[in-house]
Prior knowledge:
four-stranded parallel beta sheet; globular
Amino acid sequence: xxxxxxxxxxxxxxxxxxxxxxxxxxxxxxxxxxxxxxxxxxxxxxxxxxxxxxxxxxxxxxxxxxxxxxxxxxxxxxxxxxxxxxxxxxxxxxxxxxxxxxxxxxxxxxxxxxxxxxxxxxxxxxxxxxxxxxxxxxxxxxxxxxxxxxxxxxxxxxxxxxxxxxxxxxxxxxxxxxxxxxxxxxxxxxxxxxxxxxxxxxxxxxxxxxxxxxxxxxxxxxxxxxxxxxxxxxxxxxxxxxxxxxxxxxxxxxxxxxxxxxxxxxxxxxxxxxxxxxxxxxxxxxxxxxxxxxxxxxxxxxxxxxxxxxxxxxxxxxxxxxxxxxxxxxxxxxxxxxxxxxxxxxxxxxxxxxxxxxxxxxxxxxxxxxxxxxxxxxxxxxxxxxxxxxxxxxxxxxxxxxxxxxxxxxxxxxxxxxxxxxxxxxxxxxxxxxxxxxxxxxxxxxxxxxxxxxxxxxxxxxxxxxxxxxxxxxxxxxxxxxxxxxxxxxxxxxxxxxxxxxxxxxxxxxxxxxxxxxxxxx
Length: 522
């Protein structure tokens, strides 16, 4: 039966990944069998039989990948579907992008569903030996070109860490000339009263972010007067804010996406969360008030309508049993991020989320250095992930027991990234990773594959970045094999704490200019 499917499988292989050269043809199989039958030398029989077994194993492994990635296989190659690119990836815009850059502003291409941004840093010139900032002049000159872009843009002002850059009041007034303004973002900036007045006067401003900038109660009083805001992200740092002023944010009538980082008196935290429970229109919440108790989060879930809540990021405290149970009241949650917790708390939370959040797309629990589930707890956790058929990104603290424990993840067709401690890139692991068609990024401990895995590596068709914890396992030969990944563009590692030399040679790097070698962010 196996040989009857070899040819059609080859067609699918060529259509899906263009790696048909790795597939063993039926002619080769027949030749190997004939040689095995004709040969009379025992030594030759063993050698030929071993080679045949390796080819058969390779074919079986490819068939496993095909069965997972083309379950509707009917003997004909699947129709090709053109890749859909976002509007800013249109090559016809390249000349316009270059023209905008020549105006001394930058471009920030979107990720994580944020808008396309025009980056205004600190353009300056030197006059009489002194630095003179030119925010207004540069932005004003760039706006005619910016207005030729066929999609909305966010203007992102980026200042200096010591905030020596000037107040941006006059410059913000210039934003009224931007035709398709998707939002305004400030990082490390100073905004005076003139600037806040200009923000209020922008007729279509619905998205405002002010991060790591000089914010205080007076600034917040100005911000909450912008009643059109749907997305508001504010970071006050260590400046204390009173409950009376902070809760005015919750009075914004159409606010949906709230990120708020500020210091508040401990006795005011629960009243703030209780009032926030009444904001049933909230779809995204990330609130860090310096301290929070389980009671506050429980109040938020139980005393309000959480049907619209899609994203909840908790920074301060791990949600324990009562809060984990109450998550059933937010059945449409798509993104959940929480800090590290005890093993039993992590397992319980995962069980509750698996039972009540079928729409989950991003799940993050803890960090790399926190507690990790191991053994049967890890196997159970990985199996529970199949409860989220739309899952795209996943970081749960799991120490991988064995490669076979990854099998449940092959049932997640949209999975782009997952984390497992001690994930080694060996042949057994590659066979499973090849069955995950959407993977874009991998974090691995060691590279432990060789030429015998050459037929599997090209099936990692969408992997763009691989981060290697132990770069002493990256050799010239393994780089050559990794280069067969069709979209691999970045290999990332850090060699600061590595005692042994990295065996990868400069000559091997030079052979693959399409791959960026990101070493400790250098």
